[in-house]
Design brief:
Layout (H helix, E strand, L loop, with lengths): L19 H14 L4 H6 L3 H16 L6 H15 L2 H15 L2 H10 L7 H15 L6 H9 L4 H23 L14
Length: 190
């Protein structure tokens, strides 16, 4: 059975004519990805919110960081798996497959990152992100010190927490509005 054929379950439509900056962004998505991700299309009903989302996402996931792009995507998938967010597991699982060149790693991350053969540093990073997702009230200095002991700087710990926090918010939004991933993600980097 195919996945549902909608972007979200809400009746909020993309504008028929996009502002020039957003039209340019859609064109960039088509050039780089061959599609406009449904999360972008879902936000398009409100151009101001879309611009905020794009700006924050790009700074967080593509900007300078002590974490690699792959590590940030791994956090996105581990958090999304913990939250059972269909959209983000599919979309960011594809990104892990592509960035790692390893389709199996992408699937392991979606299903259960704990069975993947990861470096101790990456495992600790994901354990921290998932603990922050599932038991944020229990995160303490010992958790941060464990990351420091494995070579993470305080700025890296900020980035881990920020990526985890962003995807916890995004997962809840995606689940709340029944956001469906672009079908193209399913076949990418396999």
């Amino acid at each position: 059975m195919p996945q549902p054929d909608h972007i979200t379950a809400l009746d909020l439509k993309e504008p028929e004519v996009l502002d020039a900056d957003l039209e340019k962004y859609y064109a960039k998505c088509m050039e780089k990805l061959g599609m406009v991700p449904n999360v972008i299309r879902a936000y398009a009903w409100n151009p101001e919110k879309l611009r905020s989302f794009i700006s924050f996402y790009n700074a967080l996931m593509l900007g300078d960081s002590g974490l690699s792009k792959l590590e940030r995507e791994m956090i996105a998938v581990a958090v999304s798996s913990s939250n059972r967010c269909y959209y983000c597991q599919v979309a960011h699982g594809a990104a892990v497959r592509e960035l790692s060149g390893d389709a199996v790693l992408g699937e392991l991350m979606v299903m259960n990152y704990r069975v993947a053969e990861l470096e101790p540093r990456q495992r600790a990073m994901l354990d921290f992100a998932v603990r922050l997702t599932e038991e944020s009230h229990k995160v303490g200095e010992e958790d941060r010190q464990h990351l420091r002991d494995l070579g993470f700087s305080d700025a890296d710990i900020w980035d881990i927490a920020e990526v985890a926090g962003f995807f916890n918010m995004s997962n809840r939004l995606a689940s709340g509005i029944d956001m469906i991933p672009n079908p193209e993600y399913h076949g990418q980097a396999r």
